[in-house]
Amino acid sequence: MSETEKLKEYQDGDLTVEWRPERCIHSGVCTKGLSAVFKPKEKPWIQTEGATNDRIIKQIKKCPSRALAYQLNGELEEKSAKPTANKVNVLEDGPLVIEGACEVKLPDGKSETRENAALCRCGYSQNKPYCDGSHSKQGFKG
Fold first, then answer.
1. What span, in angstroms and rounded, lies between the C-alpha atoms of 133 and 128?
2. Which of 37, 82, 77 is nearest to 55 (CA)?
């Protein structure tokens, strides 16, 4: 996590769900997979009492952008399974998702190393080169 990256935590007993909104690509994997916990139209949008810790952890591990992570008993756990080789996935009407360690070189000459990255394909993101979910609001097809 970079020094400027935001982190929001949602705690219930031994489980703390971490969300990094700047990484989130709004793919809906969490909300479609476990709508009893991930409720984007409610405050707070993550309600850990909606499912068992095991079900929540299983869903977090499916997050394509790794915006979700968790702590169990105060120990940071693996965000998701690390791929054995780097992969680039083209999400329908969405970003390019790179799975695995990658170095992203920015226009100002700086670079960032990330475990996963979701790169904008639509051109509407306010967080370029990263996806911020703007493609869904703009009706991007591709």
1. 11
2. 37
Q: Quote the CA–CA distance of 131 and 118 in Å, as a whole number.
A: 6
pLDDT in tens, 36-94: 999 999 999 999 999 999 999 999 988 888 899 999 886 666 554 555 578 888 989 99
d(CA 16, CA 28): 20
70 CA to centre of own chain: 12
Instruction: DSSP for the chain, please give it.
Output: --TT---EEEEETTEEEEE-TTT-----HHHHH-TTTB-TTSSSSB-GGGS-HHHHHHHHTT-TT--EEEEETTEEPPSSPPPSS-EEEE-TTS-EEEEEEEEEE-TTS-EEEEEEEEE-SSS--SSTTB--SHHHHHT---
Tell me whether the omega of the peptide bond preceding residue 129 falls within 30 degrees of 0, making it cis: yes
Instruction: Please answer whether residues 20 and 6 qualify as being in contact, where contact means their C-beta atoms are separated by less than 8 angstroms.
Output: yes
CA distance 18 to 127: 20
Q: Determine contact, residues 88/69, Cβ cutoff 8 Å.
A: no
